[in-house]
Amino acid sequence: MRLGVTGTPGTGKTTATDLVESDLDVVHLNEMVREEGLYTEVDEERDSVVADLEAVATRLEGRDDVILESHLAHHLDLDAVVVLRCEPTELEGRLRDRGASAAKAEENAESEALDVILSEAVDRHGRNSVYEIDTTDRPPAAVAEEIEAVIAGELEPSAGTVDFTDYL
């Protein structure tokens, strides 16, 4: 199985996937992109890099028993996608606690409220391959258990079940 765990920055992807107990290897794509130079440019203003998704896909060829973790994971070929979600006000707080600027935290919170990553995941993979998990008031271990349930085939796809539009 090739599973993507994606979501807006701050939803808990890295923390949860580090706790998943599975035979699947976890690949933290953002780390891999930076460490292996799989990017096309550096955005100094945003303190980020622009990933070269073709290079990432090439690097991952033949890796099938894997969890790909990143806010970009849903742009790759996957068997299933887990989209972690978080209430936008909570998300803003998490990002500010991590040192994000007010503008960057607000931008990500608005993206979360607008379902940007969920929409992209459904557009690329179809509603029947996408699972949503609301991480707002859940401990990371509980989120990891739900990811494990997706891997085990114990859950039905759930795209469109989380709604944060009231934030807007």
> What is the multimeric organization of the chains shown?
single chain
The CATH class, by name, is Alpha Beta
Question: How large is the count of helical segments?
Answer: 7
What's the gyration radius in Å?
Answer: 15 Å
Number of strands: 7
Q: What composes the largest sheet? A: 5 strands, parallel
Residue-averaged pLDDT, rounded? Answer: 96
Proportion of helical residues: 25-40%
Say which CATH homologous superfamily is assigned.
P-loop containing nucleotide triphosphate hydrolases
Spell out the blueprint of helices and strands:
Layout: E1 2-7, H1 13-19, E2 25-28, H2 29-35, E3 39-43, E4 48-51, H3 53-59, E5 66-69, E6 80-85, H4 88-97, H5 102-113, H6 116-125, E7 130-134, H7 140-151
Could you describe the 3D structure shown?
The protein is of the alpha/beta class and 168 residues long. 39% of the residues lie in helices and 20% in strands. It has helices at 13-19, 29-35, 53-59, 88-97, 102-113, 116-125, 140-151, and strands spanning 2-7, 25-28, 39-43, 48-51, 66-69, 80-85, 130-134. β3 and β4 (48-51) form a beta hairpin. α1 (13-19) packs across α7 (140-151). The protein is globular.
